[in-house]
Amino acid sequence: MKIIPFTIPVAKETTVMVQEDQLPHFYNHLHRHPELQLTWVQEGTGILITGSHTQRFQPGDVYLIGANQPHLFKSDAPYFAADSTLGVRALSFFFNPTYLAHTLLQLPELTLLKKWVSDQTPSQQVPTEQVPAVTEAMIEVQHRQEGPRVAAFIQLLHRLAQLPAWQVLSPPTSGPTITDTEGTRMDRIFQYLVAHYQQPVSLAAIAEVANLTPQAFCRYFKKHTDKTFVSFLNEMRISEACKLILSGQFASFAEVAYQTGFENVTHFNRVFKKCVGQSPRAFQRDFYGKVG
Asked: How distant, in Å, are the alpha carbons of 179, 187, 200, 225 from that of 196?
């Protein structure tokens, strides 16, 4: 897979491209490709940005990234430390829905599967309870070659198509297609936010990163993410707050608030409840109630 800013062209010689990653950290720039991407995170933690959505990822998560959906698996900061012994592992499949519709899925027996593949435009997450069955099918594809791999891939698609209650992460990319130049600018914006979310981030500072006036930046960011800059930043901070709360490594919720970029606990509590649907304390209590 050749890496260039924002757009990543994927090899077309195969029906499905199988990629096994074992790296110090995930590729840390916003990018896209016309292929659907099915990724099983086997090792590693961080923030997933896909379209206008941001959330934490962890081992065991399986995602289907929509075609041409800008996305980024941003490993946590410790993975980038000079003395880090951490690493990530992932198994990813790339397949072009248009190519499949005009080739393999032209068979009359695969008409419903063809429609399902064509409909997979948003980015989604496999429900937790369905992960074992999906990853088992992915391993079957991984270990086969040529014709048997294609047969196993069809079985995998059938399994995916029959899954109930996919979790939709971000809607299909709407509006004008984002150019590579705009994608590079969006990447700079996201890189800055990921690096500075623990500190106050002023509108003037982030607008300067984008080389826009504050007013123009607000319009630009809303156009390309369907969210305001403040909403997106708050969601990123709350995602990190959830990680910290579940780790149990904090002295108080005030500490969680300050470590994730909030200037006071009252504002943190209000934003947390808006994003998660419950207070930080209730979130912690529910989690330990389920695992206890």
From this structure: 26, 14, 8, 19
**Domains in the chain: ranges and CATH:** 6-170 (2.60.120.280), 197-291 (1.10.10.60)
Asked whether the beta carbons of 85 and 26 are under 8 A apart, the reply is no
Q: pTM, whole model, 2 decimals?
A: 0.86
> Contact at 8 Å (CB) between 48 and 71?
yes
The rounded distance, in Å, linking the Cα atoms of 256 and 262 is 9
Phi, psi of 207 (to 5 degrees): -65, -35
Query: pLDDT of 49-88, one tens digit each?
Result: 998 889 999 999 999 999 988 999 999 989 999 999 999 9
Backbone angles phi, psi at 289, to 5 degrees: -70, -35
Q: Is 278 helix (H, G, I), strand (E, B) or coil?
A: coil
